Amino acid sequence: MSEDDQVRSPSNIDPHAEVRRKHTETRAQFAAEVARWERVEQRYSLLRLLSFLLGAVSLTAAFWGDHPEWLWISGAAFAAFGVCVALHWRVLAKRDLAAGRRDVHARHLHRLTRTWEALESAGQDPVDHHHPYAWDIDLVGQGSLAGWLDVTHTTRGHQTLLGWLGGPASAKEIARRQAAVAELAAAVELRRELEVSAVLSAPDGHRLDGTSFRQLAELPSVFEARPWLSPVIFTLPLITLGVYLAQALGHLPSPAWALPVALQFSLVILHQRAIARAFNLGSARQGVVEAFERMLVTLEDSEFEAPLLQEARKRLLVDNIKPSTHMASLRKWVSLGELRQQFLLWILVNPLTLWDLHVLRGLESWNRRVGKRTQDWFAVLGELEALSSLATLAALDPSATFPTIGADGEALRARAITHPLLLPDRRVPNDVALRGPGTALIVTGSNMAGKSTLLRAVGLNIALAQAGGPVCASRMTVPQVRLRASMRAQDSLQEGASYFHAELTKLKGVVEGAENGPPVLFLLDELLRGTNERARHVGAKAVLLHLLERGASGLVATHDVALAALQDDDTRITNVHFTDVVVEGEMRFDYRLRDGVVRTSNALRLLALAGVDVPSEERRAIEG
């Protein structure tokens, strides 16, 4: 085999680069399709203009130039104009669909290149700033795991994803989610179409919210409260028409028609508030109705093998009828209600036909049959979006695997674990293993050597595993634990809290959590850094032993080498470390986790490299 053949051999292909190549090519294909439809759209715009102008000129010639034969040309031109308008709308729809698909793959490319400014943050509002670990491990916020994964476009999906990442599911539920995530990871087109369905009709790029559907379903029913109203709105316009005809034929005096018209007008005025309330909820969400209908069609037309996905699809049926059929019915009534926007036509038609009351009756009938079940639809769509978000990691990261969920009392073990948010070519895999409840790893090392990154890698992968998603490790066993972290505390001038007080508040949550089961798995970074060295060492030792005595396990990153001396007297503690070397005046890190305690410190060397003169004898005395 030649050297070139070896380069092209599948075994030598970087799987991450292959994923990037596929999304780049697909995005380019849809971009070309958008450009093609834009050219077609320009032609139809020109044809619309020309046909309209021809119709207007020929109509003018027919009436003002005394050429009645031009009426045929005018009619044909305006007919062509109508056809061009209809075709133009179809072309615009196809262009927007291609653009939506292009943008989905563009966002995947931003994920692959970690272009954070181009990705939406997962948002901070739904997650409490006092969450026991979300902010510490970069689970939420700008440049976070949730922001990287998030392919949701509904508020329910967004909240579901954050809820799953923010708390552990049961082992049984995790297994069900893993099967669904694995199936969705391979279903690239389904995940893409689900996104596009939401984006095409989403109002101003905001997340789709089903609140208005709940409000619509909770409106008091006018027709149930007034059973006589239904027959009246059907018979009264017919009576009005009969009276008008009788008057026209001379069987009734001329003012006779005014009485039934006045009755109809009174009915409209009497129920105007209820009509306006229902129509405002419907009309304001017309785009939302279309978007949810598109998403439901995408889901109901799909066949699934994973039990969780099959059950979700069944939950959508109402009276064995597909949800898209019900949504199309709702969209019809909402569209009919929009006659109010054509004021001159509405002011004539509504009093004579009781148009608004007929539409209100249709909306209330839809509510009785379907309305209260819509919340199930939004819950299903939210779960599917959350599963699709977890599947995004599995699809974009070929090295991701599904972890094993261990039983109570089992140890955390991870082989070749890496940080999910790092670029694949910058990741350094490490093996991490705890010996079970009541054991800890003390991680020492130089500044910037990788201690905090390791803790966050462990935390993020545990959050993924307990949500039912894949992890960035070649093999990982995650026991039934409750994750707790104290890695990032912030002081607050508004709350009058110092850094030390803020850190104590975080630690209090970790310590209190250890009092209950399941066991806590803690991630602690530089304990009590807001106080002096002696108090920090004594306090950190007390906190660690307190947690271990209550069956908690975890990792502690520290510069306090003296804390690592606990291993000498306590078999529950194991020391590991990161280190660095200086080569030709340049500090280098390999980010490899090693056994034992670090023997050097790079703080003074960093000062020296920054141009600060540090006496060499004092530096050697500290570094050893």
Secondary structure: elements and pairs:
Elements: H1 3-8, H2 15-64, H3 70-113, H4 145-149, H5 155-165, H6 171-186, H7 188-201, H8 211-217, H9 222-225, H10 229-248, H11 258-270, H12 272-283, H13 286-300, H14 307-315, H15 323-337, H16 343-353, H17 355-369, H18 374-396, E1 404-405, E2 413-417, E3 430-433, E4 440-444, H19 451-467, E5 475-478, E6 482-486, H20 499-513, E7 520-525, H21 533-549, E8 553-558, E9 573-577, E10 580-583, E11 586-589, E12 594-595, H22 603-609, H23 616-623
Parallel strand pairs: 1-5, 4-8, 4-9, 6-7, 7-8
Antiparallel strand pairs: 2-3, 2-5, 9-12, 10-11
Helix pairs in contact: 2-3, 3-7, 5-18, 6-18, 7-13, 10-11, 11-16, 13-15, 14-18, 15-17
How far is the first residue's CA from the last residue's CA?
Answer: 53 Å
Second-tier CATH architecture of the largest domain? 3-Layer(aba) Sandwich
Number of domains: 3
Mass-distribution shape: elongated
Question: Major β-sheet, in short?
Answer: 6 strands, mixed
Instruction: Tell me which oligomeric state these chains represent.
Output: single chain
